[in-house]
Amino acid sequence: MNMNKKLVFILLALAFIVVVSCKQETGIKFNHKFHIEENDMSCEDCHTLTDGKMSLPSMDKCSECHDIDVDNPSEECLLCHTPQSAKEDYSIEQKALPKSYADVTFSHEFHEGIECNSCHKGIENSTDLKSITVPKMPVCLECHNDEEAPKSCDTCHKEIRKDVPPASHKGDWAQWHGKEADFDKAVCLYCHQKNMCSNCHQTQKPRDHLTFVWKTEDHGVEATHDRRKCAECHTAGYCSDCHRQKPPSHKRGDWMAFDRHNGHAEAARRNFRSCKVCHETAECAKCHQTIIMRQP
Ligand code: HEC
Ligand code: HEC
Ligand code: HEC
Ligand code: HEC
Ligand code: HEC
Ligand code: HEC
Ligand code: HEC
Ligand code: HEC
Ligand code: HEC
Ligand code: HEC
Ligand code: HEC
Ligand code: HEC
């Protein structure tokens, strides 16, 4: 790519990002907490069940208290409309349901008479719309426990079943599931027992363990990058038990020698953090309290 082409490419990429991020701001600004508390309003003042769906209020509802002169657009419209909405003839783009809802059957009609905040927790305290999310499955299961309401998967799901592997499980999933970017482990446990994970993790090593120097070098570097992923399969005790044995570096003849270029002094100066993986500072102090250090 020559310089000009590169520049055009970058500008196009930027324009794309700008378009995408503005798109999300097309909509309405609204503060539930304020209107419910200060104006003593209830959910049903603005949302009612119409044709099986919960309605969203039209601007007429707002006009009951706010002066809105639709024929003369002005700055005042921006009290409720985002700048992007104003730019696009004040049109409103409704938030889509999250992807995880694609398989879900739900209707407010099944739940008439149930308090809104059994499912929409905390809306009365929310000050913007961005923070509002539709309920997650565990909220449903608070009642769908086979006592108040049925809990079998087919109550709410069209395709998903506990004993049918979901679409993610294709190919060598058994090897690759760990690479799936930050999945929500709670979702795995909708279908799996916790010990199913740990039983396998105690015997099957990840591929990075297969390098020749995993035990003596690589694992420390990996652990320094991201300790959490080790905890997926190892207890802290597993690490510290082995760290109670002297590493190869300590077995060199000059480890304790006065030669500062090969000994522990130089190693400590280079990377003291690595010592602390296995040593309490107090252990160093055992000798260093009594030894008068030579100045470098
Ligand atoms: C003064 C009117 C008003 C009252 C009162 C009100 N809401 Fe809303 N609500 C709105 C508006 C306006 C929106 C945003 C609609 C939009 O995005 O176009 C909204 C959005 C929502 C949404 C999110 C919809 C989505 O898809 O993002 C939920 C859920 C909701 N309200 C529930 C409630 C509940 C529960 C109560 C009572 C605690 C309540 N509302 C009270 C006006 C109101
Ligand atoms: C029962 C009267 C009433 C209704 C109905 C009402 N509002 Fe309000 N709203 C107020 C009052 C009072 C204020 C505070 C004075 C002001 O800023 O104009 C306010 C303030 C606001 C604010 C500014 C809040 C803030 O956090 O700064 C927004 C945005 C707003 N309303 C949006 C709406 C929308 C959207 C609707 C229709 C879905 C609506 N209001 C319906 C009474 C009402
Ligand atoms: C107090 C809040 C508020 C103010 C101020 C306000 N609007 Fe609205 N407006 C809304 C709400 C709420 C809707 C309905 C959104 C929906 O239909 O989901 C809406 C919808 C609209 C729509 C219809 C959009 C569509 O896609 O159907 C137009 C046009 C519009 N507003 C123009 C204006 C103009 C012009 C002004 C300034 C003179 C203004 N609005 C000021 C709250 C407000
Ligand atoms: C049993 C749980 C439950 C109860 C109770 C409940 N909702 Fe919902 N609500 C949901 C779910 C799930 C969705 C998202 C799925 C959907 O819209 O079909 C939703 C969506 C909404 C939406 C967004 C609709 C849209 O088209 O964007 C509004 C507004 C809303 N609820 C208001 C209310 C109000 C007001 C009440 C009380 C009168 C209420 N809900 C009671 C579970 C519930
Ligand atoms: C506050 C308690 C409660 C919560 C929370 C709740 N439900 Fe329900 N749900 C019920 C009750 C009660 C019934 C009626 C059960 C019956 O008829 O046997 C029901 C019925 C249903 C039905 C119809 C079942 C049938 O027999 O066909 C569906 C689907 C459903 N709920 C989905 C959901 C979803 C999805 C959620 C979470 C977003 C949810 N429910 C949250 C109490 C609740
Ligand atoms: C009472 C209703 C209800 C029941 C019963 C229920 N679910 Fe769900 N489930 C939901 C809702 C609502 C969602 C979407 C919200 C979310 O992501 O949590 C969901 C989402 C999921 C997802 C995530 C899908 C994705 O694309 O991320 C899985 C997996 C799942 N359910 C599995 C199950 C299994 C397995 C069962 C039976 C053991 C079950 N569910 C029973 C309501 C239910
Ligand atoms: C909707 C149910 C469901 C969900 C959600 C689910 N699984 Fe599975 N999973 C299955 C089924 C069914 C199998 C096949 C079981 C069998 O072969 O005995 C399976 C198999 C597996 C296997 C292969 C086991 C083996 O011995 O080869 C792994 C690994 C696995 N799942 C991990 C996960 C992880 C990690 C998650 C969360 C990201 C997850 N699963 C979410 C249903 C599910
Ligand atoms: C069939 C054996 C097996 C089962 C069952 C299994 N895993 Fe794994 N898991 C592995 C292997 C092997 C790896 C390492 C893959 C690699 O990187 O080479 C791994 C890696 C992971 C990682 C990534 C760790 C890292 O490197 O960041 C996570 C997270 C994980 N598994 C979660 C789960 C969960 C949650 C379950 C249970 C729902 C589960 N696994 C069930 C074999 C299994
Ligand atoms: C088989 C024994 C053994 C096990 C098990 C072990 N380690 Fe180590 N670890 C060592 C040795 C040997 C060294 C020193 C390598 C060297 O000489 O620098 C070391 C060094 C380290 C270092 C320092 C790397 C550096 O130089 O910066 C970290 C961090 C580390 N290990 C983390 C862990 C974690 C986390 C676990 C458990 C998940 C673990 N180790 C399990 C033997 C082990
Ligand atoms: C998917 C599970 C899994 C993950 C993730 C994992 N390990 Fe392991 N690791 C194992 C298994 C299984 C063994 C073999 C245990 C045995 O032999 O008892 C092992 C062995 C080791 C050993 C000893 C190697 C030897 O040759 O003796 C070290 C050191 C180690 N792991 C460090 C780490 C570190 C550090 C991390 C994080 C960067 C990590 N492991 C992440 C499963 C895992
Ligand atoms: C993998 C674990 C591990 C790491 C990493 C480690 N040490 Fe050690 N070190 C030990 C063990 C185990 C002993 C023996 C302790 C005992 O006998 O009480 C030891 C002993 C020592 C001793 C006493 C002399 C000896 O050989 O017994 C010195 C000095 C020392 N370490 C310095 C360091 C310094 C400096 C670092 C960092 C550059 C470091 N160690 C990193 C495990 C480690
Ligand atoms: C068994 C006794 C002993 C232990 C334990 C010990 N050291 Fe030393 N350390 C010495 C001796 C002896 C010297 C002097 C060697 C020299 O000057 O080259 C020294 C020198 C040093 C120096 C150079 C000091 C200077 O001012 O030049 C550093 C840094 C150092 N040690 C770090 C550590 C750390 C970090 C630990 C703990 C991980 C540790 N030592 C544990 C005996 C010990």
Q: What characteristics describe this protein?
A:
two-stranded antiparallel sheet; 296 residues; binds heme C; 2 strands; 3 domains; mainly alpha; disordered C terminus; 1% strand; 15 helices
Helix content: 25-40%
Residue stretches low in confidence (pLDDT < 50, at least 5 long) are 17-24, 292-296
Described by its quaternary structure, the protein is single chain
The small molecules bound here are: heme C
Terminal residue distance: 53 Å
Average per-residue pLDDT, rounded, comes to 86
Q: Rough shape?
A: elongated
Read across the widest sheet, the strand sequence of neighbours is 1-2
**Structure classification:** mainly alpha
| Pattern of helices and strands | HHHEEHHHHHHHHHHHH
Q: Tell me the total number of β-strands.
A: 2
- How big a fraction of the residues is strand? under 5%
Largest sheet geometry: 2 strands, antiparallel
Q: Can you describe this structure?
A:
The chain is elongated and about 90 Å long. The protein folds into three domains: 32-155, no CATH class; 186-243, no CATH class; 248-288, no CATH class. A two-stranded antiparallel sheet has the order 1-2. Mean pLDDT is 86; it is low at 17-24 and 292-296. 36% of the residues lie in helices and 1% in strands. It is an all-alpha fold and 296 residues long. The longest helix is centred in the first third of the chain and has 21 residues, at 3-23. Strand 1 and strand 2 form a beta hairpin. It has helices at 3-23, 32-38, 43-46, 59-63, 83-87, 137-141, 173-176, 185-188, 194-201, 214-225, 228-231, 236-243, 264-270, 272-276, 281-288; strands at 49-50, 53-54. The two termini are 53 Å apart. It contains 15 helices and two strands. One heme C (HEC) binds next to helix 10 and helix 12.
